[in-house]
Amino acid sequence: MASGIKLSKDMNLFESYGRLINPAYPSFLNKLGLNKVATGAQGATITDSEGNTYIDCVGGYGLFNLGHNNPDIIESLTDQLKEQQLLTKPLISEIQVRLAECIEKITPGELSCSFILNSGSEAIDCAIKLVRLHRGGKTIITAQKSFHGHTFGALTASGIPSFKRAFQPLLPGFISVPFGDIEALKQSISADTGAVLIEPIQHEAGILLPLNGYLQKVRKLCDEHGLIMILDEIKTGFGKTGRMFACEHYNVVPDILVLGKSLGGGLIPTGAVIAKSHLWKRFGLSFPMSASSYAGNVLACRAGLSTIRYIQQGSLLADCAEKGKMLLRSLRDCVGEYPNILRSAEGLGLLIGIETQSGKIALELAKEMIRQRIIMVPAFGNSSVLMVEPPLVISFQQIRAVVDSFAAACVNVSNK
Ligand SMILES: Cc1ncc(COP(=O)(O)O)c(C=O)c1O
What we know:
Layout: H1 13-21, H2 24-32, E1 38-42, E2 45-48, E3 53-56, H3 59-62, H4 71-83, H5 94-106, E4 111-117, H6 120-135, E5 139-143, H7 152-157, H8 161-164, E6 174-177, H9 182-188, E7 193-198, H10 214-225, E8 228-232, E9 256-260, E10 271-276, H11 286-289, H12 298-313, H13 316-337, E11 342-348, E12 351-356, H14 359-371, E13 374-375, E14 377-379, E15 382-388, H15 396-414
Parallel strand pairs: 3-13, 5-6, 5-7, 7-8, 8-9
Antiparallel strand pairs: 1-2, 2-3, 4-10, 9-10, 11-12, 12-15, 14-15
Helix pairs in contact: 1-2, 4-12, 5-12, 13-15, 14-15
This protein binds pyridoxal-5'-phosphate.
């Protein structure tokens, strides 16, 4: 192996993964007929140890907007390693400042100050801390069916009960309302409220778009009541919806924007919290020092800068919007043809959910797709929705292959 890690040839990696790392994940893959070990990945494809190549419609759950092993990002990271301008703690590194400047330029409105962390969940926790710093112990309103991550703060903020149940008691100071219901949000605001934390598009519950001006209305309520508006764009950021950030579609600027996933170019773990400068005033020494040791490390910053440059220099965003429209149109044609198994297809850019008639049907369709070498899986928070979220570098030809295979899968499943 290129990594130099020696693994015994006859070791059954799949079984060992289950025994040593996580028993649940191999069973999940088994159920889908995807009990394979990856040997390589490039662009929008993954290859398994038997030499099968799959079109990846999972996109690393948002990690691989720029594709798997993007050569430009690899080259920039290799250069950074060769230059040996790596961690300099306790001194500051120039590249971290360059990334902060770049983030200030590409984020909308007056968002300006940023802090780089190691994951989306950490960045969400950091945003929660910012609220606590500025609004004391006031409550944060979140949305039911949301997903914000696995750390205790992020998990508390998440709105999928099955993800949280085993870990009670979680943090105090959160309440949740249905996503998209502005009246419910209005009713839940009191003198005790400090902030609202939502995703612009909910994904774990299937794809829920913010309809009827929902985001603008949330912004207005936050302004009227002096609440901090936080948008979690960990999944939707960096081009997934055809714009750099999903909030741009709705002309809404949050007070705090949380990013992650593809910021690391699909190669380096990272997350970021970006806020308007007045919220940064109390960002004292004890606050950054509670962040973790590798936060803002040079490789993560280089990956972030290269990712942003890559998106800005090419036509990735416009292409993503066009590819997304083409894919959604074709999937909706399938919905029209197979109402016995499909209910709807919704999405923006290359973040699409196909709502099927049941979890069983979604699983059958996923298995059919995998048999045809296209990886598509049901949403973790809603088993009846099949998620279609390929890397943005997927080609038009690959999209046609996905659509043709999906139509064939629909024939097979509806005839069962
Ligand atoms: C919307 C959203 N927020 C937060 C997270 C957590 O990010 P991470 O897995 O990097 O901790 C995720 C991860 O799936 C996510 O999709």
